[in-house]
Write a structure and sequence with these properties.
alpha+beta; D-Maltodextrin-Binding Protein, domain 2; 2 domains; 5-stranded mixed sheet
Length: about 250
């Protein structure tokens, strides 16, 4: 079996993800489900998520809606305790440099946008309800490869605007305070369902895995790793709630 928690895998919280995984392993194994000793944090992407050996992972809502929806089982939707999140929904902070003259997002369209990935909901597709395709709406664009990279590029003047996932924005302010001090939030994107936890579509243990996840979520209020990961709770959100993302 294989498992990963790749979506918020920043080096500063690697040990917290490891502790989270050990809590999940304990809950799984108490229910007779064997699990890998360690997470494979290098494993990310549709091919990995579609593996019949997938025990547990977290995916972005956009690939879930467009490529995974009927091929994996949704286990739960985490709720994060950061600005920009509300229950099992989240938004992205649209950031610019603190000294930028932009008063609104429309003003920023004359600049260069940094997007983390063209398959990302929180750094790319999230712009669509406001301005359409950002690669067309902005005068210039660059693909940064990650939210942290996007924010650093804006802070350094290599880009003028970026959409940063709310959890990543919280991480950035904590772990890149000097760069964050040069930035401000221009706007927030609409809210979308947060990044879901999934297991293989071939799994026969979906109910038991959900029970184990619920048990571990009950520990969030008492564990430092959960505080560091900003985990508040886990809710079960029907897969249909993600369907609208496919239209972005």
């Amino acid at each position: 079996m294989i498992a990963s928690l790749p979506m918020y895998h920043w080096p500063e919280v690697a040990h917290d993800h490891a502790d989270y995984w050990q809590a999940l392993r304990k809950a799984f194994e108490k229910r007779g489900i064997s699990s890998p000793e360690l997470l494979d944090q290098s494993a990310v992407g549709v091919e990995f998520w579609l593996s019949n050996d997938l025990l547990f992972s977290q995916t972005c809502g956009y690939p879930f809606a467009t490529q995974l929806r009927d091929k994996v089982h949704l286990l739960g939707t985490p709720c994060y305790r950061v600005e920009g999140c509300d229950g099992p929904t989240y938004s992205s902070a649209i950031i610019v440099r603190k000294d930028a003259v932009y008063g609104n997002l429309k003003d920023a369209l004359t600049g260069r946008v940094a997007v983390n990935s063209c398959s990302s909901l929180s750094g790319y597709r999230c712009f669509v309800p406001k301005i359409g395709d950002p690669l067309s709406a902005f005068d210039r664009s660059v693909v940064s490869g990650g939210h942290r990279n996007s924010a650093l590029m804006v802070a350094a003047g290599e880009a003028d605007c970026a959409a940063i996932d709310a959890v990543c924005w919280d991480f950035f302010k904590r772990f890149e305070p000097d760069a964050a001090n040069n930035l401000r939030v221009l706007d927030w994107t609409p809210r979308f369902p947060t990044l879901p936890y999934i297991t293989s579509g071939a799994s026969n243990n979906v109910t038991v895995l959900r029970e184990a996840l619920e048990e571990v979520a009950g520990l969030f209020s008492t564990q430092q790793w959960a505080e560091n990961l900003r985990l508040g709770s886990v809710e079960y959100v029907a897969a249909e709630k993600y369907d609208a993302l496919a239209q972005l």
